[in-house]
């Protein structure tokens, strides 16, 4: 049986599970990098787990793609990246010499 032969609800459930695991792996690595809350997992292992979970999410997303969805996702990604960069620029301009200043 092929992944593409699975029903859409099954693939959506798989995506939700993989996204949850990715979030957990990202939080674990952040915890290690911050160093404030010790964990028995080392950084190398945490990075490997994060990489594996990203791959799992990508494979699952790929199983849900059709040409129309792919175009829509590309558009959304561009818009979201632009908004994120704009917020970062705004936050930077709100601090001058370490002091908070009102924008505008």
Write up this protein.
The chain is mainly alpha-helical and 104 residues long. The protein has two domains: 1-64, no CATH class; 67-104, no CATH class. The protein is built from three helices and two strands, in the order H-H-H-E-E. It has helices spanning 8-34, 43-64, 67-93; strands spanning 95-96, 99-100. A two-stranded antiparallel sheet has the order 1-2. The protein is flat, with a radius of gyration of 19 Å.
**Helical residue percent?**
over 70%
Strand and helix order: HHHEE
The Cα radius of gyration reads 19 Å
What integer is the average pLDDT?
88
Strand segment count: 2
Q: How are strands sequenced across the largest beta sheet?
A: 1-2
State the low-pLDDT regions, or none. Answer: none
What structural class do the secondary elements suggest? mainly alpha
Counted up, domains total 2
Question: Outline of this structure?
Answer:
With 104 residues, the protein is mainly alpha-helical. The chain has three helices and two strands, in the order αααββ.
